[in-house]
Design goal:
Number of helices: 12
Structural class: alpha+beta
CATH architecture of the largest domain: Alpha-Beta Complex
Radius of gyration: 26 Å
CATH superfamily of the largest domain: Aldehyde oxidase/xanthine dehydrogenase, a/b hammerhead
Distance between the termini: 40 Å
CATH class of the largest domain: Alpha Beta
Number of strands: 15
Strand content: 15-25%
Strand order of the largest sheet: 3-5-1-12-9-10-11
CATH topology of the largest domain: Aldehyde Oxidoreductase, domain 3
Order of helices and strands: HEEEEEHEHHEHEEEHEHEHEEHEHHH
Length: 421
């Protein structure tokens, strides 16, 4: 590290990007490739009555795949609850239903417009708190059971009754964060083919190549050793390339046709099909003494998982663990939920569940400071975690807790802003 910190270091990947030599998935082609596109549902919740592909068999169309062509029709990072191609139950706008491969992209897209799908539209669940109700219809009864509550983590520390008895000032509020798209510059793209050994090769921008390999092999019904995933230049990702996007469909079509298959999402297709940041509702009640010491916190966090599980259990776990922020609070009650709805499915995004609670716990600190006549800096300094502190989960911090030093370093800026000097 002594050769790196404080020195200019040449990035190994810089020159290829500067000169345009770096290969991203959209840049790679193969001789004799066909182009594949996906027909997606325009409905958030529906059952498929029938699919008529008669008119889609245009000259140049090589293959049309539906759920019946998928040996094992499920994938997912934690639960295989997401269909490669929907057979019957549509759970979100953008669900993939039919894949079409053709000699040109123009023919593939034209054919996709000619697939006739008859839907029975079903009432949608778009509010996670409504979806939590016992009488709400379950979206995944076969896998996740009769409730749409995918995950619940309770965290308990201390004695809440005693904590509220000590609280001389209490602030209670509801906060919410929105769904966010990763919006990386390069939409999803993939090239897949079958090599001379009969093995499937997939070139893609992914954050999770070994997971992709396992999910492709599972869906195709072949051994993992028969699948090779090559990670090309990834570019932006931010968590949005952890879930499978086009990899399985491209690999399946290559396996079925024996032809190399190229797929690339438009920006619109990317928005519809990949995961988003979890929107959360955060109900917070925070108590402090007159001298600004935190004594109690209750938090109820509801995360919208959308139509499929993806990383939701892990993300709402992290939201719960970080719900108290960088503050030591002796009495804590936290309940964190991941809830299935008919909204776009949510998954990994920068911060991975730790980002959303910041809005709530820091807003609570500012409001308490206001009520107590303290500066935002003072109330934080009085409650920061330090070496020897115990978190809400009981972890005792034994080192590398630099919060106080950090706030001390910025103290002049806080005070200058408050005094106007």
């Amino acid at each position: 590290m002594t050769n790196v910190v404080g020195h200019r270091v040449e990035r190994a990947d810089a020159w290829g990007k500067v000169y345009g030599q770096t290969k991203f998935p959209a840049d790679v082609q193969a001789a004799g490739q066909i182009y594949a596109v996906i027909v997606r549902s325009p409905h958030a919740h529906a059952r498929i009555r029938s699919i008529d592909m008669t008119n889609a068999w245009l000259p140049g169309v090589v293959a049309i795949l539906t759920a019946s062509d998928v040996p094992h029709n499920g994938h997912g990072v934690l639960f295989r609850d997401q269909p490669v191609l929907v057979e019957e139950h549509v759970r979100m706008v953008g669900d993939p239903i039919v894949a079409i491969g053709a000699e040109s992209l123009a023919v593939a897209r034209e054919a996709a417009q000619l697939v006739a799908i008859d839907y029975e539209i079903l009432p949608g669940l778009f509010d996670p708190e409504e979806a939590m109700r016992p009488d709400a219809p379950p979206l995944h009864p076969e896998l996740h059971g009769p409730s749409n509550i995918l995950y619940h983590l309770p965290i308990r520390k201390g004695d809440m009754a005693a904590g509220w008895a000590q609280a001389e000032v209490v602030v209670e509020n509801q906060y919410s964060t929105q769904m966010v798209d990763h919006a990386f510059l390069q939409p999803e793209a993939v090239l897949a083919w079958v090599d001379e050994r009969g093995h499937v090769v997939v070139e893609v921008a992914t954050q999770y190549a070994h997971y992709d390999r396992g999910e492709i092999a599972h869906a195709l019904g072949i051994r993992a050793s028969q699948v090779q995933v090559r990670t090309l230049a990834v570019g932006g990702a931010f968590g949005g390339r952890e879930d499978v996007s086009l990899q399985i469909v491209a690999a399946l079509m290559a396996y079925k046709t024996g032809r190399p298959v190229k797929m690339e999402n438009t920006r619109e297709e990317s928005f519809f099909s990949h995961c988003k940041r979890h929107p959360m509702r955060l109900y917070y009640k925070t108590g402090a003494t007159r001298d600004g010491r935190l004594v109690a916190l209750e938090a109820r966090i509801i995360g919208d998982a959308g139509a499929y599980a993806s990383w939701s259990t892990n993300i709402l776990r992290k939201a719960a663990v970080h719900a108290t922020g960088p503050y030591e609070i002796p009495n804590v009650q936290i309940d964190s939920f991941a809830v299935l709805t008919n909204n776009p499915y949510t998954g990994a995004m920068r911060g991975f569940g730790a980002a959303q609670p910041v809005l709530a716990y820091e807003s609570q600190m500012d409001l308490l400071a206001q009520r107590l006549g303290l500066s935002p800096w003072e109330i934080r300094m009085r409650n920061l975690l330090r070496v020897g502190s115990a978190t809400a989960t009981g972890q005792v911090l034994t080192g590398s807790v630099g919060l106080a030093q950090c706030l001390e370093a910025v103290a002049p800026h806080f005070h200058r802003r408050e005094t106007g000097i």
